[in-house]
Structures are given as structure tokens and as C-alpha cells.
Amino acid sequence: MIKPVCSAVPTNLITGFLGAGKTTLIQQLLAQKPSHERWAVLVNEFGQIGIDQALMGTSQDIYIKEVAGGCICCANALPMHIALSQLLAKAKPQRVLIEPTGLGHPKQILETLSESHWQTTLALQATLCVIDARQYQDPRVQTHESFLAQAEVADILVFSKNEVLDDAQRASVLDFARQLPPPERQTVFISQGQLDANYLAMPKRPSRQVKRSLLHSLPTALPPVGLVNQDSIEAPYHYHQRALETEVGGWVFPASWQFNHNALLDVLFALTTLRIKGVMHTQEGWLAINLTPLDASLNSTHEAYDSRLEIISEQPIDWSTLERELLNTRLMT
């Protein structure tokens, strides 16, 4: 029998750029959870449609809660306070993992969680930053404000997808790690998201203030956080918006709607985007989709409450045309 929490809960922040492999890493860490413990995960989706809860699933001893519709590290942190308080009260976990959006700055989150009223509730341990060394080869990533901010606050730099990296890519990210402001961070290369869960218990490094631009703090830079109640979204539903110089949009479809597996993938693979993530009901079963410019992950998954698809793109998208193409793949019975 799992006992209620009586002391501060060990808590980790797991950051990383879009498509770096955060969700895969968290899934593998959850698989290593001690059988007698209950863990909780707070996920911040940049868009308004939560996907990760459907991908990770929830069980008796794993609780997932999403904060969708923006970045919990910006402007008003109230949605994070509320979501975290609800998660702690409901789950009474022995560990909390927090996954911010891949376009966010985590420094503000760490500052919020270090405030006095959280210190008796949460025990902050190592912050992990997941980096795909292949993404790092893009000069735009190397100078991206969010990417640099995520790496600077990390205690451990987790270089993912080692199975497809070459020696030059490995050397480049290790050189990047050495050039970050002190104190030195631990580095580790992983394959298939497999990281020893003992890394979570590592202590935080002594903090060092790093000055960055004020751009990310502007309230107009991001959509409001937490304005979309995931329980209140009724399918079919669509939204799109522009934020942080990206196009963001998505759909929720009724679970009873089935889509042609191959035709749906033809539509999605024809797009040029930063990320496509979803859980869709096809005639071949439920499909978990995670596409980036460097990777395509397609896996069978458990039945979901509805089908969900979310797209983040640097290029303009004709949302009306794309919706028509998606609906054309629906199987009519």
C-alpha cells in the first residue's frame, strides 16, 4: 500500500527543444519507477490541445496532468501553481517530473518552485536538458534564445538518440557543453530514451545568475496559459494561432471517427514543420504520431478518449486546406 507523502517531494524539471526526445525520456523513466512509489508528471503543451497525456497514459501509480495553451514559464505562473497543487493533492506522489514546452525558458519555473511556499512541499533535484545533437548542427538552434536558456539552467545535459549520431556530432555538443557558463554540467549520451533513473536523484548545482534578454518575458510574446480546459473541449474542434514566430494549430476528432492510415500519413509527411504530434484512430488501430524534421515515430497505442493532432511550424500553413485534406482521409461508414 502506497503511503501518503509526509515530506518534501523530490522534483525534477525535464527540458529540451522541440523534438529533442523529452516525452520518450519521461516514458522510459516512468518505466523504471519503483513499484511501491507513485509518480506524477506535469506537462506543459505549447498548443491548446494536450497530446502527451494520451501518449504516456495514466495508471494507478502514475498521474499525468497537462497545462495547455502557452508557456508556464512566462508572465503569469498562476496556471502552474494551480495545476501543481491539484496534482500534488490528488496523486500524493513520491516524485514529480515537470516537462515545460520545448519553446519555453525554464529559469522562471525554477525560480517559482524555489519560492518559500514551495520549499516545504517540493525538494528540487537535478534539472535535465535533453538535446538532439543533430538539431544542434543547425545554426538557428545554436543561437536560439530558448535552446540556450534550457541548457544554461540544466544540471545534466542528456544527449539523445546516440544510436544515430556520428563522432563529429558528439564532439560538437560536448564542445558546446564546455562553453556554457560555470559550474560544469554532467553530460550523458543515451539511446532510445534509456537513462538510468538514478540521475533524477542527483542534487542541483549551485545556482549562478545568467542575464538574458527580456524578449521572452513580454506578455504579448506567447498565448495566455491554461485558458483551455482539456475536459471541456468537444470534438470536432480546431484552433490555430501565431506565437513566438511560429504557426501553431490542431484538431480534436471524435473517437468514433476512423481515418485511413496510409492516406493520413501521406498528408502529414507532405508537410514541412517543426513538429507534428498526435494520437489518431485509424482502420489499423490507434496510432501515436511524433514527426520532426529529423525523426518519424509511429507506434501503436492504447485506445484514447478522442483523436488529437497538433502542428507547430515556422512556415505559414493554409489551415483550411489542410483540414480539408485531413477530413478527406476519414473513412465513412
Automatic annotation (TrEMBL):
<feature type="domain" description="CobW/HypB/UreG nucleotide-binding">
    <location>
        <begin position="10"/>
        <end position="176"/>
    </location>
</feature>
<protein>
    <submittedName>
        <fullName>G3E family GTPase</fullName>
    </submittedName>
</protein>
<dbReference type="InterPro" id="IPR051316">
    <property type="entry name" value="Zinc-reg_GTPase_activator"/>
</dbReference>
<dbReference type="GO" id="GO:0005737">
    <property type="term" value="C:cytoplasm"/>
</dbReference>
<dbReference type="Pfam" id="PF02492">
    <property type="entry name" value="cobW"/>
</dbReference>
<dbReference type="InterPro" id="IPR027417">
    <property type="entry name" value="P-loop_NTPase"/>
</dbReference>
<dbReference type="InterPro" id="IPR003495">
    <property type="entry name" value="CobW/HypB/UreG_nucleotide-bd"/>
</dbReference>
